[in-house]
Amino acid sequence: MRPALHTVPLAPALARATFLGLVAVCCAGVHAAPHEAAERAFAAVDPFIGTGGNGHTFPGAVVPFGMVQLSPDTQLKTRKEGYGWAAGYRHDDSTIFGFSHTHFSGTGHSDLGDVLVMPIAGAVHLEPGSIDQPGSGYFSRFSHNDEKAEPGYYAVTLSDYGIRAELTAGERVGVHRYTFPRGKPAHVLVDLRPSMYDYPGKVSWSRLRLREDGTVTGVRETRGWAPGRQLYFAMRFSKGPSGHAWHNSEQDIPYKGFAPPAENDPTARAQIEGRALVGVLDFPAETRELIVTVALSPVSEEGAIANLEAEMPGFDFDAVRSAAHAAWRDALGVFEVDATEPMRRGFYTAVYHALMAPSLFMDSDGRYRGPDNAVHQAEGYRHVSTFSLWDTYRALHPLLTIIQPEARTNDVVNSLLASRRESPYGILPVWAFHGLETWCMIGYHAVPVIADAYMKGIRGYDANAALDAMVASASYAPYDGIGDYMKLGYVPIDKEGEAASKTVEYAFDDWTIARMAADMGKPDVTRRFEQRAANWKNAYDPKTGFLRAKRSDGTFREPFDPSASGYGTDYTEGNAWQYSWYVPQDIAGLIAAHGGDAKFVARLDAVFDASVDPKLFEHMEDITGLIGWYAHGNEPSHHVAYLYDYAGQPWRTQERLKQIMDSQYAARVDGLAGNDDLGQMSAWYVFTALGFYPVAPGSNDYVIGRPFLDRVAMNLPNGKRFTITADHLDDANRYIGSVTLNGKPLDRSFIRHAEIMAGGKLHFTMQAQPNTHWAIEAKARPYSMSSR
Fold first, then answer.
1. Range 755-759 contact pairs with CB under 8 angstroms and sequence separation of 24 or more
2. How far apart are CA 75 and CA 486, in angstroms?
3. Do 347 and 686 meet the contact criterion of CB atoms below 8 Å apart?
4. Is the pLDDT assigned to residue 541 strictly greater than 60?
5. Environment class of residue 44 by beta-carbon count within 10 Å: exposed (0-12), middle (13-18) or buried (19+)?
6. Which of 9, 336, 484, 576 has the fewest beta carbons under 10 Å from its own?
7. CA dist list (Å): 89 to 74, 84, 278, 316
8. How many CB atoms lie within 10 A of CB 432?
9. Tell me: the pLDDT tens digits for 654-699?
């Protein structure tokens, strides 16, 4: 006899309080735009953009920065092909094998896919099956004609079952609504085996438990990208199941159908543990609508239950969807955009993708799991994780300093500092998710995230502790050649791979430490890191004009092939043509090293105008979106088009940006040229569409490119309003004729952060021919370390 499910009805007043609270938390610090404009912003988002090609985005349900990303996982023959399925979903697939609750948006690496749930009508299979053999497993075919996706909501018809599946989400809870066909037994399958990439064999341990009140709880620990990751869940159903069966496929325990199993049958146990668990819950044949609520917790099953009680004590699917709608409407409503419909759709979808990570990673009581895999308590801030810092420090985090400085950026900094305190190594995260370090990519790029926030006056954290953490990370000798870097002034290639990239990225991070230390009145730290910020010069080869790697004896490594990229070369996910511009703190110094403006511009032109065979990068999955050597699909190229401004030729930046926007973005499923990388590609688009970009986070300057929107008003969280307008903006008029700021001529090619946050109006007048006299003088150029 199975215990009956104890349902908890949600009173209307409680529902309103719960979900209005969710909206308030999601959108704290966001100055809501007028309702109608915000609704238009919401309606413009297309979550399918980026789900094809190389974008690696997912179309499922999530709220801004939510811990749950509930989305369909589409079928493929083997999860070892996981790079293309890093988000769990590819638009060119035609089968779904379930809906899991955690997903990365746009990463170049696969993981997550936790707690997969699949509704079934009729016969039950315990394996996903082969896409070549319909009916061989529990997967179902589907048609894109039957899909619907909007922020916070996804729906699809599982055609093999005739089930309509709808998904929505709160911060810690995913909510499913299934409408079953008449006349067939209804089931819900819960599979704890699948993960993105390298499935099966990734689960170290898992548990399924049916509690007396009918709540299903469990945990799984995985040994994937972040080894030892634990995630707990609690699941409830709007109707009590008529039976259940747990299975461990390692022990080949079979599914025995609908009849209640004997008491000594292992499938009848209230709890089962193992490395390959799948459960089936049966529901009465007359079941038509079933609501399934699933809460996640990084701490414990009891924490997951508490999260479920706090966010979703009942089964009102529409209330959750409405709250998610409101949260996204207000978050997107920071921008009020007038533009062509494709531009509006592309812009608002980019904002949407930029507001997913870093994601919440704590229970409703503030507890979370840290990099030491121990449980900690967040005090006075909301703990977040999922930091793709090599990507996101460039544009995503600077975007958040404008549109969510207090509500999000302070949480980010406090979370980074907490992770440093709890780290066995005493340093800031490199690439971390669900609290754990992956050591992916290079640099110590939590440093510029903190420095940029500090320099912009965002100070809701202990600044002295922050500077100590930054210095500790920059001084941790065992990490990626830092010990030799501190001794030699560069990373030696005979001791450390990708040494040129590491040298110049460390130098930029060091400059941001110097900036923050100077502002805090720490002269010793300032001098030390200003000296280190100039280490890029140790990688510059005046004979070739490239940034290169040196050996320990001070000589450049030979032979040298500037087209060579990736593992075993001097560079990380790039080559000499792509990485030799990475001196964002001192572009004026790089121009001088090249021999002046004209030679620098000619060298930039050689990047964009080269004839390059894409097959050269077949071994590098991330190098995509080629324009000559320029590779917009990967981050090392993202600032390059803006560098003409530093050489006194901003009209050339305007030309290149038009070329990039036209060829690398489109409002369609394959509309991202490369991995969105947790919002970095999208944040680049947002900034560039506005008309400026943060080439050097920490400088407080944004380099002016050119606008791509006729008008955009930014409803800033401080209550101010900053409006950007462009006259005569069309394909024929792609050049800036003149610029005014608050009605006065702006004769420089940058705008300061304080000028945006003060509110006002930036106005562009566009024209068909380049204005070769605007912003060309040295004083009109953006910040460089050696010129200011």
1. 756/402, 756/702, 756/714, 756/716, 756/722, 757/402, 757/456, 757/716, 757/718, 757/720, 757/722, 758/720, 758/722, 759/716, 759/720, 759/721, 759/722
2. 48
3. yes
4. yes
5. buried
6. 9
7. 5, 9, 21, 27
8. 27
9. 999 999 999 999 999 999 999 999 999 999 999 999 999 999 999 9
The structural domains of the chain, with segments of one domain joined by +, span 65-325
* CA neighbor of 693 nearest in space, from 627, 632, 638: 638
pLDDT at 30 (0 to 100): 43
Phi/psi zone of residue 100: left (φ > 0), alpha (ψ -120 to 50 degrees), beta? beta
CB proximity list for 427: less than 8 A, separation 6 or greater: 420, 444, 469, 472, 473, 476, 479
Tokens of 440: 């992916």
What b-and-e string marks burial along 664-683, b requiring 16 or more CB atoms within 10 Å of the CB? bbbbbbebbbbbbbbbbbbb
| Separation between Cα atoms, residue 280 and residue 186, nearest integer Å | 10
Classify residue 730 as exposed, middle or buried by CB count within 10 Å of its CB (0-12, 13-18, 19+).
exposed
Rounded CA separation 360/435 (Å): 11
Check the CA dihedral 611-614-620-625 and report its sign: positive
Rounded distance between C-alpha atoms, residue 456 and residue 413, angstroms: 13
Average of per-residue pLDDT across 65-90: 82
Note whether 709 and 340 are within 8 A (CB): no
Structural tokens at position 728? 């005569």
The answer to whether 306 and 245 are in contact (CB under 8 A) is no
Residue 95 pairs in a beta bridge with 141
What is the dihedral angle through the alpha carbons of 405, 505, 682, 89, rounded to the nearest 10 degrees? -120
Which tokens in the block code for residue 107? 């990463």
pLDDT band with cut points at 50, 70 and 90 for residue 132: confident
Q: What are phi and psi of 186, to 5 degrees?
A: -105, 135
CATH assignment, 65-325: 2.70.98.10
Render 293-359 in DSSP notation, one character per residue.
Answer: EEEEESS-HHHHHHHHHHH-SS--HHHHHHHHHHHHHHHHTTEEEES-HHHHHHHHHHHHHHTS-SE
Burial class (CB in 10 A: 0-12, 13-18, 19+), 396: buried
Buried b (16+ CB within 10 A) or exposed e, 293-331: bbbbbbbbbebbbbbbebbbbbbbbebbbbbbbbbbbbb
